[in-house]
Sequence to fold (227 residues):
Amino acid sequence: MDLARATRLSKALARARFIALGGFHPEPEDRVPPCGSTLRPTRTLLLIGSAGSALFDAFSASPEASDGKPDPLDRYTARLLRDIADEFGFTPVFPFDGPPWHPFQAWAMRAGSFSPSPVGVLCHATFGPWAAFRAAFLSPERFGTFEANGAPGPCPSCEGKPCIAACPADALSLEAGYDVPRCREHLKANRDATCHTGCLARRACPIGREFAQTERHAGFHMKAFCG
Ligand code: B12
Ligand code: SF4
Ligand code: SF4
Fold:
């Protein structure tokens, strides 16, 4: 991909409130599917994400947000990103194409700048625990060099790891990671807990605070999480 096309792609993504988070050249162990109906092997994967609440605010004004059908944010994401992928000749795949799920967290580790966090989500050098994965754009062409793009993820060098102590349910530990059932039980048993408008452990992370979700946005995801 030449610089002019890469710039146009970045602008198209930014207009729709998405971010190109990096990419890599897949190996067989990355479990990346082939491209579209041609089934040509994928030679480059671009990871498309979002951070903060800009995407959620744009979604809130969309027809999907109020049509009463299931999975409105996923349908909105797919509509916008399919158009951009078509325009630039990519095959899009989505984190909600499953089960079985595409291994988006493993792909993010390959794209770089992320570290596994005690909160379960991967933590990004710039966006902290607030980067979400929205799609992967697959290409049969090999382009770009993404392997060493940017700073390492922040968790290994984070002193004190304040995310762990911030969890009121003791659902996080260095040894066992994120205890999903314990977190969910806490939320279900405490309907007025602050966590319902955003995970307190994620909010305690010092990295990427300017990308923290608004309470309305976090509440949307926490409602889905609690069922
Ligand atoms: C199922 C699922 C859940 C389930 C179960 C999660 C679990 N811990 O078991 C539930 C419903 C509980 C859940 C909850 C949430 N989830 Co969720 N979830 C998923 C989903 C759809 C599939 C995950 C999966 O099982 N993949 C299958 C395995 C095989 O894939 P994998 O990538 O190879 O798995 C690897 C990684 O997990 C990685 N990994 C994990 N830990 C570590 C540690 C190390 C050291 C390394 C190297 C790798 C690593 O290694 C695994 C093996 O290779 C993904 C989307 C996706 N397609 O990935 C989102 C996803 C993981 N969830 C996400 C989020 C944000 C959440 C929530 C925080 C949502 C919210 N409420 O805001 C909540 C957590 C609640 C909270 N406290 O806030 C994000 C994480 C973003 C990030 N920066 O990492 C994802 C990627 C969705 C997205 N579109 O961005 N989730
Ligand atoms: S507080 Fe530290 S360990 Fe926890 S997610 Fe943030 S950077 Fe990682
Ligand atoms: S949502 Fe609340 S209970 Fe669950 S991990 Fe975050 S801080 Fe802990």
About this structure: Residues 95, 98, 101-106, 109, 116, 120-122, 131-133, 178, 180, 183, 199, 221-222, 225 surround cobalamin (ligand 1) (CB under 6 Å). The two ends are 42 Å apart (CA to CA). Residues 37 and 157 are 44 Å apart (CA to CA). Residues 72-88 form the longest helix (17 residues).
